[in-house]
Specification:
Elements: H1 3-8, E1 31-34, E2 37-49, E3 52-61, E4 64-72, E5 76-84, E6 95-98, E7 101-117, E8 126-133, E9 140-146, E10 149-158, E11 163-166
Antiparallel strand pairs: 1-2, 1-11, 2-3, 2-7, 3-4, 4-5, 5-10, 6-7, 7-8, 8-9, 9-10
């Protein structure tokens, strides 16, 4: 082995390996394929209520924005949410009506949040949240307070096999 073998040999440089992503380890910049569409993760919110933690990922494809929620309760729970216009004030009501369906309050609390990417503006704040559901149906309505504004989203559960995650960074 001489000079030429040193020059032409393919040495592996110490490249850090890209860690496999799971729905609980998605990062801003990753690509999520869902429903035959590729979405870029442009924002991430980590919610913490006591010792419980869950994630909201802001997904963008063209002008279309949806949110992917991910939490590990007894098992992995995923959902796709889209913002809706629903006039709500605090205190949150026990029931909501949207598109002629009545949704009932299932869960309510306050979470500390960490925001990244487009969601960096909420970093360090608290959000008063609530989850509403219709008995016998899969969709739900989520409310979150951000300062004086209350955002409403409607969503439905999905299975982990319905999404593919392509890491956009290490």
């Amino acid at each position: 082995m001489g000079l030429f073998s040193n020059i032409f040999s393919k040495k592996e440089k110490n490249k850090p390996e890209v860690k496999e992503r799971t729905p609980l380890s998605i990062k801003v910049g990753d690509i999520i394929t869902y429903d035959l569409r590729d979405f870029e993760v442009v924002g991430k919110i980590t919610y913490r209520d006591g010792n419980y933690e869950w994630f909201g990922y802001q997904l963008l494809e063209g002008n279309d924005t949806v949110w992917l929620s991910a939490e590990m309760d007894d098992e992995l729970e995923l959902g796709i949410y889209k913002k809706i216009q629903l006039p709500v004030s605090t205190p949150y009501p026990k029931q909501l009506t949207y598109e002629n369906k009545t949704y009932y309050l299932e869960e309510e609390g306050t979470a500390r949040v960490l925001g990244e990417g487009r969601s960096a503006n909420v970093n360090g704040s608290e959000s008063h949240y609530a989850e509403y559901a219709v008995e016998g149906e899969n969709n739900s309505i989520s409310l979150e307070s951000w300062g004086t504004e209350i955002e409403a989203s409607i969503g439905y559960p999905i299975e982990s096999y319905e999404i593919k995650i392509l890491a956009g960074s290490i």
